[in-house]
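Translate sequence into structure tokens.
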Amino acid sequence: MMRPDATPVFRALAALRRRRLARLDAAATQRRTLLGLLRRAEHTRFGRDHGFTGIADVAEFRAAVPLRRYEQFWADYWQPAFPRLVDVSWPGLIRYFAVSSGTTAGRTKYLPLTDAMRRSNVRAGFDVVAHHLGARPASRMFAGRSLMLGGSTALVEEAPGIFSGDLSGIAAKTLPFWARGFSFPGPELALLADWEAKLERLARESLDQPIRVLTGTPSWLLILLERVRELRRAAGGDERPYPDLDLLIHGGVRFDGYRRRFEAMLAGTQAEMREVYPASEGFIAAADRGPGEGLRLNLDHGLFFEFVPVAELDRPQPTRHWVADAETGVDYALVMTTCAGLFAYVVGDTVRLVSRDPPRVLVTGRTAYGMSAFGEHLIGEEVEGAAARAAGAIDADLTDFAMMAVFPDAHRRLGGHLWVVEFAKLPPPDAVAVFARRLDEALCALNDDYLGHRADGVGMAAPEVRAVPPGTFAAWMKHRGRLGGQNKVPRIINDPGLADDLVRFVG
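Result follows.
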């Protein structure tokens, strides 16, 4: 039995939150956040090693705490005590670890998920609600249920009382009491680890549910929505997957190539699409405006942000900016200090500030997410943007793609890029040829190094595009043991073994 519509209560709370956000001083809030985190962790092993008790401002923090990647944190602090971390980099016992691959192709990482971080994530989720209700005052999002398409809540018990698992699975398992009455699925279905079986059951069992909010990674959401629509068609009913949908929350990958398909799928509903930037390291930002206007950083949730120019990241003494002095229009490597015991931690994402008051960012790629096998220096943003433009040129909808380098050999005079591309509907060969040509043109327009290598066809061959049938990438991810949840298709593949595996898989 669903509760009565609780939206009016949340609407009033959301209005208070928006007024507070409007008054927020970014620099003062971030300075206060950093010093609060240092005070909380000053008696941990990490805090003692870095003299937290003597740090009184941002500059002193930078001088005392160098940048670290996951591998350094793991080797120096977390791994020796894992899985029982007590007062290592955050006070108390760490009861949960979010398992992350870090990159779409990389190794498993175990990131501490403290009680403070789980509360931070909940507060960030409420901010998404506040932004939505401000934009859609007639929304009735709490008159029904919220469907989070996440990983299994079946966690691994690493030691007595200490668990690891998918971040979305941990979030679903540890929902605050007030949210449980609005959530779907129930505990039994949420536990299911077989992703294909889970999707099918979610589709069937959600048909009669008043789904008002839907959240997940775009590629998996599309599969669910299409299956729900198929079931409704078969029953001769309303073809809108969820007629009462108010809000679709998406994140994890660039949305440009998906937007048109979602707009068509949600036609006839009042649903708003809103982007978020969650990570295993923390809930970083969310859209408070429209598409393309940037994601507002969560400044008062126990996260402190630094920005390092990408070109300086691997220097011994890189320049470290924060919200008080970071500039718009510059690609930065994102660095975080958090209430999960991460300090000056290199997240691995690159961002670009599009406004400073309040700070909003666009995610432009990964620090190791680029292609420069021949000196072309493509970044993720350019690759994704070119693919979206090329798909628009042939009026096709992209589902997923991956690009990789192919090198000269006895049968190939010039090296270049192979693109394996999955569309919603397999286009004819002549359309694929147009896609390849427009893809090449877009990359030439976006990147001068690529243009120089493509000039007169003497440095790189034109991109080769191999279109594959719908469902191919889902099948490949299953083959790799990475089906569903927060797993994403690697858009740029620099690992030769992984590239060979995909090529063999698609035949």
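Note: The domain at 370-506 is CATH 3.30.300.30 (GMP Synthetase; Chain A, domain 3).
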